[in-house]
Design brief:
Blueprint (H helix, E strand, L loop, with lengths): L1 H15 L21 H6 L10 E5 L1 H10 L8 E5 L5 H11 L7 E5 L2 H5 L7 H17 L3 E2 L1
Parallel strand pairs: 1-2, 1-3, 3-4
């Protein structure tokens, strides 16, 4: 099931690659942007009772949705945690702080395109699937639905 979801997401990601993402300055001490959302996460209020918070975890495609489609989600408890250029191992490293700690009801993961591009070195499909499965397992262990 997880591998089917991974395959579907990768196909969607390739279709969306034409959407440019906003450029964000990187810190000299945090070049992979693993702490990009640290202050924003700290300032985010706890999910209200009954709130159906959804975190979008991903790369530049995810990061760009707010700029291009943000009006469609106004007033919704959606949290964008996309970072341009990131690969699945980088997302797995920050999954606890940028997803689990925010206590969402669901997470949408869009990842793998930068792995295929070789942004952090060579990757196999199996490596990408393992990283995505790791994020899905972490989410499910914390009762977060993976979409």
């Amino acid at each position: 099931m997880v591998r089917t979801i991974v395959t579907l997401r990768m196909r969607v990601a390739w279709m969306l690659l034409g959407v440019p993402a906003p450029v964000v300055a990187q810190s000299a001490t945090d070049w992979p942007n693993l702490q990009r959302y640290r202050d924003t996460n700290a300032a985010l209020p706890a999910a209200a009772a009954g709130e159906n918070r959804v975190v979008f975890m991903g790369n530049s495609i995810t990061e760009g949705w707010q700029k291009y489609f943000g009006d469609q989600f106004r007033g919704k408890p959606y949290v964008n945690r996309g970072i341009g250029g990131q690969t699945t191992p980088q997302m797995l490293v920050r999954f606890r702080q940028d997803v689990i700690a925010l206590k969402p009801k669901a997470v949408v993961i869009l990842a793998g395109t930068n792995d295929i591009a070789g942004n952090t070195g060579p990757s196999t499909i199996e490596m990408i699937e393992d990283n995505l499965a790791g994020m899905a397992e972490l989410a499910m262990a914390h009762r977060i639905r993976v979409v």
